[in-house]
Amino acid sequence: MRKDMSWRKAIESVLKEARTSLHYKEIAEQIVSRGLRQSVGATPAATVSANLTVSIKKEGDSSPFIRTGKGEYAMRPDRLATAGVPFQPEREADSEDEEEKQYGIVTSFGMFWRRSFVQWSTQARLLGVQQMGAEPVDFCNQIGIYLLYDGREVIYVGRAVERPLGRRLYEHGADRLSTRWDRFSWFGLLPVSEDGKLGTLPKAFASDELVPAIEAILIEALEPRQNRKRGDDLSAVEYLQQEDPEIEKARMRQTLDALARKAL
């Protein structure tokens, strides 16, 4: 069995082949799709971002990486020259570019998740992956804000604080809204560790983080037509929904039972 590359070597491999700058999320996707690492944990994009940030901050000009834009990185040109690869810069880093900022308020979110992908109970598994190939994270105990949709129309906005997200959504399966929603979006406050566990809520949030975080949530959730930017300032990681495997198992059991009845 081939040994995994280190994250640093994997990042270098992707950027050398790209010959231009890439967003750290795209770097993570290529590491997974090219099989440079079999073990990528639950937060590959965050891990790539952390490796790049630490290298640049600690190593300075000795780092093989440079930041070329918001969330975008490339190999240092002299390193590419040494490797015999011509560098094609996408753009110079704008002096007015702000450093990518994690608000420390909203850490993760999911958009338009399907109600039918969840095996509902008081401890329903709300499974999401940062990207294909990553380990799934269960957001049942996440806290934050959620929206219920009938098709694409928002019919309800709620908060999951005293009772976490999974429990609140389960309750909406039995209340006055039970037949009115088929999808949901959520914005969570608890951080996600590399091994896919939810962390704890910070004791306080900086006041200057609150307004931009709230604005970003509203833009992302409501998609207003007159906003030129979407939820780009929402630095939280989006998670793609993964269907609970128990649902597929139940479908298989139903199929086998139906075949057995036909055989009688």
| Secondary-structure element series | HEHHEEHEEEEEHEHEEH
**Strands of the largest sheet, in order across it?**
8-7-9-4-10
Globally, the shape reads: globular
Q: What structural class do helix, strand and pairing data support?
A: alpha+beta
According to DSSP, the number of beta strands is 11
How can the largest sheet be summarized? 5 strands, mixed
Question: What is the mean predicted local confidence, pLDDT?
Answer: 84
Count of discrete domains: 2
Please work out how many helical segments DSSP would assign.
7
First-last Cα distance: 47 Å
What share of residues is helical?
A: 25-40%
Radius of gyration: 22 Å
Tell me the β content. Answer: 15-25%
Instruction: Give unreliable regions as ranges.
Output: 93-103
Overview of the molecule:
With 264 residues, the protein is α+β, with helices and mostly antiparallel strands. It has two domains: 7-82, Arc Repressor Mutant, subunit A (Orthogonal Bundle); 108-247, no CATH class. 33% of the residues lie in helices and 18% in strands. Helix 1 packs across helix 2 (24-33) and helix 2 (24-33) packs across helix 3 (44-59).
Summarize the structure.
The chain has helices spanning 7-18, 24-33, 44-59, 77-82, 165-171, 207-222, 245-263, and strands spanning 22-23, 65-69, 72-75, 108-114, 127-129, 137-138, 144-150, 153-160, 183-188, 237-238, 240-241. With 264 residues, the chain is of the alpha+beta class.
Please give the structural blueprint.
Elements: H1 7-18, E1 22-23, H2 24-33, H3 44-59, E2 65-69, E3 72-75, H4 77-82, E4 108-114, E5 127-129, E6 137-138, E7 144-150, E8 153-160, H5 165-171, E9 183-188, H6 207-222, E10 237-238, E11 240-241, H7 245-263
Parallel strand pairs: 4-10
Antiparallel strand pairs: 1-3, 2-3, 4-9, 5-6, 5-11, 7-8, 7-9
Helix pairs in contact: 1-2, 2-3
